[in-house]
Specification:
The protein has about 280 residues and is α/β, with parallel strands linked by helices. α1 packs across α2, α2 packs across α8 and α5 packs parallel to α6. The C terminus is likely disordered.
Amino acid sequence: MSVPRAKVDRLKAVLRSRSKALVAFSGGVDSTLLLKVCADVLGPANVIAVTGVSQTYTPEEKRTARRAARELGVRHVLLETNELACAAFAANPADRCYHCKRELFARIADLAGTLGVGAVYDASNVDDLADYRPGRRATEELGVVSPLLEAGLTKNDVRALSKKLGLATWDKPANPCLASRVPYGTPITPEVLDRIRAGEKFLRELGFPVVRLRHHGNLARLEVPAADLARLVRPAMARRIAGRLRRLGYLWTSVDVEGYRMGSLNRAVAPARGKARARA
């Protein structure tokens, strides 16, 4: 698959509109592509990658981000955040991501001001508009620019262009923050995040690179791609997984027969979103 030249040209034009930029950088496929093109267009010395580090972000993702920034030759700033100290986040309302993004990007904007950098970029793409993303409101309020979105790049475009540019992340699975595994209304605590982190790490070590452990109190609901379902429920494998998750505090382990879906917990807010659209 090739990316239309017009989209690539538009992306570069957006980036050229500022001489320096801070890029909110998770180390995922989208932000790595954005950081790469920023470095190519503006020069590595004019680009700073900023990664928010907290209990919702895994050590593995932190190492991936540090390695990618180093390979691209850009300065990398690790910004310690503490979302759990924010009651509006820890209570886990449906707009949880708004409170997280508001804190993170406010701090990135402050850093940009201190360093004399005129632009803060995030790596949202066109496909993100199709999902429930309350964090978008925070970025819009703070004047954060989304160059991939402005250029009309979809997720498939991002992967195709990443592959063309030789980025190792071109086929990297999405891995949003650990709080996204907790149903809205269930409080987020360090203990819950630790259980999710340890459970998913164990499953990845068993050979399930794309996995979500959805936390439902004493029950862990596992999502893996449909192609991996049969292997996941083989008796020996199932016993091994259930035993490990029981030691982490889950009394029961279930397998979601629909398989992995990005943002599956957003189904709980879909009716309200539909009503809101109807009123608009």
